[in-house]
Design brief:
The longest helix has 4 residues, at 81-84. This protein has one domain: SH3 type barrels. The protein is built from one helix and five strands, in the order βββββα. The protein has one helix at residues 81-84, and strands spanning 8-11, 25-32, 40-46, 52-59, 63-64. The relative contact order is 0.28. By secondary structure, the protein is mostly beta strands.
C-alpha cells in the first residue's frame, strides 16, 4: 500500500501504548523514507468529535486501505494513553 498523504488508513496492528487497536482509522500525514529500511508513515488518529488522540509512526505493513466491507464502530477509551487525558 502506498497511500497518498491526507487519506484514511486502517491500522492492522494494535498499538496498546498509544491506546489504539487494529481496525482504528487515522489520516496519513507524512511518509518516511530511509534508504535500506521499510517505508513508514505518520498516522494521526482522532476521537469522534475531531480531537487528535495520537500521532504515531507506523511501518507500511501496519496499515491497510479502507474497504467497502469496513464498518465504523465506537469503543470507549477506558485504558491506555488516551484515557489518561480524559
Amino acid at each position: 500500500m502506498e497511500p497518498p498523504l491526507y487519506t484514511d488508513a486502517v491500522l492492522a496492528d494494535d498499538l496498546p501504548e498509544e491506546g489504539l487497536c487494529a481496525g482504528d482509522v487515522g489520516t496519513i500525514i507524512e511518509r518516511h523514507v530511509v534508504p535500506g529500511r521499510e517505508v513508514g508513515y505518520a498516522l494521526e488518529c482522532f476521537d469522534m468529535v475531531g480531537n487528535t488522540v495520537a500521532v504515531v509512526p507506523v511501518p507500511a505493513r501496519a496499515l491497510r486501505a479502507p474497504t467497502r466491507g469496513d464498518r465504523p464502530s465506537v469503543r470507549f477509551a477506558a485504558a491506555g494513553a488516551y484515557a489518561a487525558a480524559l
